[in-house]
Amino acid sequence: IGKWIFMFTLMISSSFSFFCFSKVDQFSDQKKRMSENVREMFYHAYNNYMKYAFPHDELKPLTKSYTDSLGELGNLNLENLSQEYNGTALSLIESLSSLAILGDYAEFEKAVFWLSENLSFDVDVRVNLFECNIRVLGGLVSAHILATDSASRFSSGSYENQLLFLAEDLGRRFLPAFNTPSGLPYAWINLKYGVMANETTETTTSGCGSLILEMGALSRLTGDSRFELAAIRAIRKLWSMRSSLNLLGTTLDIGTSEWIEYSSGIGAGVDSFYEYLLKAHLLFGSEEMWRMFQSAYLAVQSYFRHGPWYHEADMRTGRATYWQLTSLQAFWPGLQV
Ligand SMILES: *[C@@H]1O[C@H](CO)[C@@H](O)[C@H](O)[C@H]1NC(C)=O
Ligand SMILES: *[C@@H]1O[C@H](CO)[C@@H](O)[C@H](O)[C@H]1NC(C)=O
Ligand SMILES: *[C@@H]1O[C@H](CO)[C@@H](O)[C@H](O)[C@H]1NC(C)=O
Ligand SMILES: *[C@@H]1O[C@H](CO)[C@@H](O)[C@H](O)[C@H]1NC(C)=O
């Protein structure tokens, strides 16, 4: 009987609160449903990757097979692919922080131990520095921070900075790309052999100007300043190449430090340069990055913006070049919040 009274009271109080706070309840119900949706979608992708593709890089969902795509990222013509490369569990590395944030510490721990025992970057694969930085170095560094920010994430074993060691090994493999007279890094590096003979000297503004968050974090975590300094030197060089209007182009030559494509906007090839300047200020408190961001931002608003949207313009004259809206521009409002 006590149970029924309890339930009755519960019903009254819940209908009372429904009456008073129906809007709030509706909203929190909707939020709960949405977060369950996200969780389901994550596991749909993750479990199928683990079943059909791991430890290769990516799942091919229609054929239930895999592709080792790290060398293909940013490589539109699929040139210089290694025949020997069999993947580095790319999707698992990219999933680490999601596992931790979803509270799946058992799977997170399993993944960390698998990677620390089985992952090696001593592989013959020519990778795009930018892509490998955001996905692999960023994946490892952010998961390392999540693994160390709470004592409760590991149940059976203990975390001994395994992800940081992997990140540091990868970061060292990036450094030869920066070994250029201008300090602007090559866009491509072979993880085993360094910069290849006859490597292209063409790169993009985002490719050489948005490496500071991951490499800066790596330096702060390891105490080895070389990563952060290399990334900062590249940004300073790039910034020195801006036009009198404070605009940058889209593609450039790291050998001659000349622009190749003078037309630019806030989309492909430049987008994350702006993003990283602001975030480097937020993450590291860098006043220098903040000043660059302010000048770059004002120039963007003056020369690319047209009403509610943004077109491209020539960095030298500020005159509009291409009137098109592209998908990568979509990050801009997020930057403005
Ligand atoms: C990758 O797999 C192929 C085929 O199984 C094998 O011949 C090759 O030795 C492997 N490469 C490495 C680096 O293990
Ligand atoms: C490393 O890979 C081997 C072979 O797939 C596997 O048996 C082993 O369990 C892996 N190590 C960890 C810690 O998961
Ligand atoms: C680099 O390219 C030049 C000209 O295309 C060629 O003669 C040379 O053999 C190439 N070097 C290497 C190491 O591939
Ligand atoms: C990559 O392939 C292209 C075209 O096949 C070639 O011209 C270039 O020299 C190659 N680069 C490297 C680093 O092997």
UniProtKB/TrEMBL annotation:
Pfam families: Glyco_hydro_47
InterPro entries assigned: 6hp_glycosidase-like_sf (IPR012341), EDEM1/2/3 (IPR044674), Glyco_hydro_47 (IPR001382), Seven-hairpin_glycosidases (IPR036026)
Signal peptide limits: 1-17
Record keywords: Endoplasmic reticulum, Glycoprotein, Glycosidase, Hydrolase, Signal
Recorded GO MF terms: calcium ion binding; mannosyl-oligosaccharide 1,2-alpha-mannosidase activity
One of the GO BP terms on file: endoplasmic reticulum mannose trimming
Cell location: Endoplasmic reticulum
Gene Ontology CC entries for this record: endoplasmic reticulum quality control compartment; membrane
Principal cellular location given in the protein's record: endoplasmic reticulum
Gene3D superfamilies: 1.50.10.10
Keyword Hydrolase: yes
Record carries keyword Signal: yes
EC assignment: 3.2.1.-
Stated family: Belongs to the glycosyl hydrolase 47 family.
Designated name of the protein: alpha-1,2-Mannosidase
Organism for this UniProt entry: Genlisea aurea
